[in-house]
Design goal:
Layout lengths: L13 H14 L9 H12 L5 H5 L10 H19 L1 H9 L37 E2 L4 E2 L11 H19 L2 H4 L5 H4 L7 H10 L21 E3 L5 E10 L5 E15 L7 E14 L13 E10 L17 H4 L5 E2 L20 E2 L3
Parallel strand pairs: 2-4, 8-9
Antiparallel strand pairs: 1-4, 3-5, 4-5, 5-6, 6-7
Helix pairs in contact: 4-5
Length: 360
């Protein structure tokens, strides 16, 4: 087919081809308005060569290709998606799996500890308890820096604070007292001339009652029924002081004791933690104004919270519930025995309610 021959065999004049070429070049994207001399020369050569026609010219690729903006946008979006998948893959998988997916939608971000891993053992009696991170024994009872108060100098206040902590140790941490022995060391620090307290001490150990119960001041377990686990009692609390009546040094002790115990008979390894929070207000009186003995204090007030220590008539001992008894024990108000933000509410005349621990 000749250069000026149409597919149907008809021919075009040179003028028509020149017009066709000019229109083709002018309509091409990004092409110059007027063809260059070289372009005209190429066009003439194509017209002169057999087998070439306008299709050859129309297949010309411009030297400056068009910007493919759409592909850049798609690439940017694809990069962002890959970044999100790398950071939070479970969210993307859940999105495509659907909220009802039983294996992915409800997968926890952190495995919950097994219940068995939180149970106390004979080697770790405080495991699973907030008290596990508390200090042991007297180390958990904070004593403030001493200063002169009332009739006492700073040095005398320091000695009184130390003796006040000694009373807490002798009444709540002494191993013999915890096993049911009489708290002789602790009682020796109480003013022997304070009649109401001395009356309590005379009858409490012989015939314990609601009014005269040794548990109001001392922690005791019946050795034939309960054994302490290990040698550690966890504590948290503090001593504070201020000027009291008649110029006395008034010391307030607010301490929580956590006792891990088990059955006396070796029939199992069930461990119960008895938790006792005590608040004692002690008065170190001026001997010129109050009848007292050197090195002793008077008790202004005593209160305590107790959970997992048994319910029922006073026996003079804590009686932790074991086995099926734990379900029946503590039908009263629920409390968090580790919460020390509220004041102690149970006193010497309010022992009729047995409180239940929300955690132990």
């Amino acid at each position: 087919m000749g250069a000026g021959t149409e597919p149907d065999g008809s021919s075009r004049s040179d003028e028509e081809w020149e017009r066709f070429l000019r229109e083709s070049v002018a309509g091409a994207a990004d092409a110059p308005k007027e063809p260059s001399a070289r372009a005209r020369e190429v066009a003439r050569r194509l017209r002169a060569e057999p087998g070439h026609g306008p299709e050859g010219w129309r297949s010309y690729t411009p030297a400056r290709p068009k910007r493919r903006t759409g592909w850049y946008v798609v690439g940017l979006l694809a990069s962002l998606v890959l970044l999100v998948v790398a950071l939070v893959p479970e969210r993307i998988v859940n999105l495509f799996a659907g909220a009802d997916s039983p294996t992915l939608a409800d997968r926890p971000t952190q495995a919950a500890p097994a219940e068995a891993a939180q149970r106390p053992t004979m080697d770790e009696p405080f495991r699973g308890s907030p008290a596990a991170s508390w200090a042991s024994g007297a180390a958990g009872i904070t004593v403030p820096k001493a200063g002169a108060v009332g009739w006492m100098s700073a040095a005398e206040v320091e000695r009184a604070l130390a003796s006040s902590r000694d009373f807490l140790v002798a009444s709540g941490l002494d191993r013999g007292v915890l096993r049911g022995e009489r708290p002789e060391k602790a009682m020796a620090l109480i003013n022997p001339h304070q009649k109401d307290v001395q009356d309590l001490l005379k009858t409490a150990f012989r015939t314990p009652s609601e009014k005269n119960d040794p548990l109001l001041l001392f922690s005791r377990f019946e050795p034939s029924r309960t054994h302490l686990v290990g040698d550690v009692v966890k504590t948290r609390g503090e001593l504070t002081y201020q000027k009291g009546e008649r110029g006395a040094l008034q010391v307030t002790a607010d301490v929580t004791f956590v006792y891990p115990v088990t059955r006396a008979e070796a029939s199992g390894d069930e461990i119960v933690r008895t938790i006792v929070r005590r608040e004692l207000v002690l008065s170190w009186d001026d001997p010129d104004k109050v009848i007292t003995e050197p090195g002793t204090f008077s008790i202004v007030s005593y209160k305590y919270h107790m959970t997992n220590g048994g319910c029922g008539a006073p026996t003079g001992y804590f009686t932790p519930p074991f086995g099926t008894d734990r379900r029946a024990d503590g039908a009263g108000t629920e409390i968090d025995p580790y919460d020390r933000s509220a004041p102690v509410g149970r006193g010497e005349s309010s022992g009729d309610e047995c409180e239940r621990a929300t955690r132990s």
